[in-house]
Design goal:
With 157 residues, this protein is of the alpha+beta class. It contains four helices and five strands.
């Protein structure tokens, strides 16, 4: 953050540096050269304000250390596109957002996710057949887990 200095720009006190101590209608200031204390209007202090540039060694600060790092998902864009295709398949097969209306959605999508996982572990890569999405079973597992997480958040358990 830049350093704020106060220097009288003109008049008999020109060039004198001071600090602002307090004040509501008036600022109480103290001159740095001799410690003299005076009351001046707030406008006087504002007129004397000088913003010093940041030192070249100072770096900026951003408090985002506890925020998600979305760029970590970039590696998975092809897989996320697959998740979107599975969601689109379901929206066409049933209706958009239909999963929210399924009774006991939390448990039923947990079971559906386990079935897709078991099919994948048994060696069946693609959710095929007449009713399948034609996508990898793992993508359907992810979609089912997203539904469970959202159902929990929305109180649809």
């Amino acid at each position: 953050m830049p350093t704020v200095r106060y220097i009288v720009p003109d008049g008999p006190e020109q060039g004198r540096e001071f600090e602002v101590l307090s004040g509501e209608l008036f600022d109480t200031i103290r001159f740095k050269d001799d410690g003299e204390v005076r009351d001046y209007s707030r406008a006087f202090a504002d007129r004397c304000k000088v913003m010093e540039p940041r030192p070249a060694t100072e770096i900026g600060r951003k408090d985002d250390s506890t925020k998600p790092t979305w760029r970590l998902l970039y590696t998975f864009i092809p897989e996320l596109n697959g998740v979107a295709r599975v969601l689109e398949f379901g929206a066409k097969k049933y209706a958009p957002e239909n999963w929210k209306l399924v009774p006991d959605a939390f448990n039923r999508y947990g079971e559906a996710g386990r079935r897709h996982l078991m099919d994948s572990l048994a060696g069946e890569e693609i959710d095929g057949g007449d009713k399948g999405s034609g996508e990898y079973h793992e993508l359907s597992v992810i979609v089912c887990m997203l539904f469970r997480l959202a159902a929990r958040r929305m109180g649809l358990k």
